[in-house]
Fold this protein.
Amino acid sequence: MGEPFRGHGRAVSGTWASRFASRFPAHGILSRMTDAYTPPADLVALGYTDRERALFDTLCEHGCEPARVVRVDRGLPLVAGERGVERAEPAAHLLKAANEADSRVVVGDWVALVRPEGHAMPIIEAILPRHGAFVRKDPGDQTGEQVVIANVDVVFVVQSLSGSGINVSRLERELVLAWESGARPVVVLTKADLSDAVDEQRELAEQVAFGVDVVVESAVTGEGIDAVRAHVPSGVTAALLGASGVGKSTLLNRLVGREVLATGDVRAGDDKGRHTTVARELIALPGGGVVIDTPGMRAIGLWEASEGIAAAFPDIEALAERCRFRDCSHESEPGCAVVAAVVEGELPKRRLDSYRRLNAELAALSRKQDEKAWREREKANKAISRAARRFYQTEPKRKGR
Ligand SMILES: Nc1nc2c(ncn2[C@@H]2O[C@H](COP(=O)(O)OP(=O)(O)OP(=O)(O)O)[C@@H](O)[C@H]2O)c(=O)[nH]1
Ligand SMILES: [Mg+2]
Ligand SMILES: [Zn+2]
C-alpha cells in the first residue's frame, strides 16, 4: 500500500491511511474514485441502506457526498466514502455547538461532505439523524451526557468464559446499556476453548438474557464465529461491548479473516486485559455488514436507562403488573407480586437485588441532575439580583447627570 489516497486536492497519506487500506474489502471504497454519484458497492460495504439513501437524497440535492465516520482522533474525524478514506473537518456551526450531543461527530455517524474551493480537507456539513446511539455519562461532567457511537443495529455484549467465567451482574448491566441504545443485544461468550463448564456458563447467561441470543465462541477453534457473523449481514452495523481482554478485537479479526486490529495479552494473575484497543473503530466485513470495535469499558455508568432496565428485566416488569400498587417499589409494600415471586422461589433474589441496584443508581443520577439544575438556577438568580442592585445604585446618579 505504498500509494497515498488522493483526497480532494491533497494527498492523504501516512501510516494511518495505509493501515486503513487493509481494513476494507479489496474491491471496496479505496479502489473506487468516481466522481459521478451512483449508489456504489463501497457505501453499501459501509452499511449504507435505503434509510441513508433517502436521507442523503434530500440532504444532498444541492451537492454533497455521503460518508461514514470510521474513527475520530483528537476531535478530527476520519471518514470513508466513495473517494476513499480521508480526514474531514466538522463545519464551524457543528464545532460551535459541539457541547450538544447531536452536533459532535462520533464513530458510526453518517455525514454529508462538501468540498469548498481551496480547502484541503472536505468539510462535514451535516450529521444525519441517528438511529441507535450509545450514550454515557460525560467523563468531564458527571451529570452531562455524551454520545459515543451512533447508528448501531446490533450490540454484541461480550464476556469471556476463561478463568472464573462470566460475571452475571456485569452482564445484566451491559444488557441494560445495550437495550437502552436502541439496538438489539446479542450475548457472545468468548474463549470457549479455555472453559470446561461451557454449558453451565451458557445457561447462567441465558437466565439473565431474556429474549437475547447467546452465542458461545472461540477464536482458537473457530466455534461460533459463523453464528456471530450471521448477526451482521450486509447493511447491519454491530458494535462490540465488553471489558478489556474478553477478546473483542480478536473476534473481529476472525470475522474479517485477517489481523486488522491489535490484540493484547491478559494479565496472568487476574485474567484482566491491558486496554489494548484505545479508540473506537468501524471495520467493514468482507461481504457483510460493519462492526465497531470499542475499548474495553472499566465501569459501566448508566445514563437515563429506564427503558433499558425495563427491556433487560422483562421478568420483573411482568410480575410488577400484578403488584397491588401501581407505583410499588417492590420493597415492603403489601400485595407486591415481585417480592412474592422471590419468596416462592420463582424469581432469584439476586435478580431483584440487581434490579433495585440499577434503579437506585438511576434515581441518584437524576437527583444529581436536579441539584445541578437548581444550583445553576440559583447562580443565574444571584447574577440577576446583582445586576439589578447595580442598576438601582447607579440609576439616581445617571438621573442627576
Ligand atoms: N484461548 C483464547 N484466547 C483468546 C480468545 N479470544 C481472545 N483471546 C486472547 O485474549 C487476549 C485479549 O484479546 P483482545 O482481543 O485483545 O481483547 P479485547 O476485548 O479487544 O481487549 P481491549 O482491546 O483491551 O478492550 C488476547 O491474548 C487474545 O489472544 C479465544 O477465543 N481463545
Ligand atoms: Mg480490543
Ligand atoms: Zn411490587
Residues 190-191, 193-194, 218-220, 244-250, 263-266, 273-277, 295-296 surround guanosine-5'-triphosphate (ligand 1) (CB under 6 Å). Residues 1-41 have pLDDT under 50 and may be disordered.
